[in-house]
Amino acid sequence: MESIAVALQPHKDTVGQTAALVTVIQFFSGVLVVNEIRRRGSTDGFSAVPFLACTVFCLLNVQFGQMLQDDGMIRVNFIGLALHLLYVCAFYLYTPGPKKTAVWGQIGLAGAFTVGVLSYVQYEDPKVVEFRFGVILTAILWTLVGMPLLGLVQNLMALALGAVQLSLFIIFPSSVAKPPPSPAKKHN
Questions:
Q1: Predicted confidence (pLDDT) per residue in 52-100, tens digit
Q2: DSSP 8-class letter at 45
Q3: Which of 24, 39, 61, 152 might form a disulfide with 77, Cβ 3.0–4.6 angstroms?
Q4: Would you list the domain boundaries of the chain?
């Protein structure tokens, strides 16, 4: 791994700028979802969680960038934070009246999680906080990347269970229940 770092050292600025540009472009992917919500006129069938999770992730990365004194990281994640706050506002705007309470609840949970992590970072031992905060951010990122896969895994499990159920119907077909024989009638 060290040899890769050494080989890329002369291109450090180019790699950093390319990564920043690609990340900012990726942040604009929410525009497609918000546009679809606008076209439908409602958030039915959509979730605010991806927007909220990315908002939290960007806010925490701004803090991490300040800790590392990395201006590029701060700038990129501030852009992401601003965009995702706009996406959350647009999502709320198109949420039907009765469902707005649920969105507020999700916003509250996201805020509480953010406050919890930021509080931890403020009170942790300065010697280990940078590493541990990086681990927390990595875990959040893996969770964000894994969310779509969770739906796929659930669908594959449902498919497998459905296939087992169908095979049981084939192996053990139901038979028409015959009525029990009636007792012989006595003739007097």
A1: 999 999 999 999 999 999 999 999 999 999 999 999 999 999 999 889 9
A2: T
A3: 61
A4: 23-163
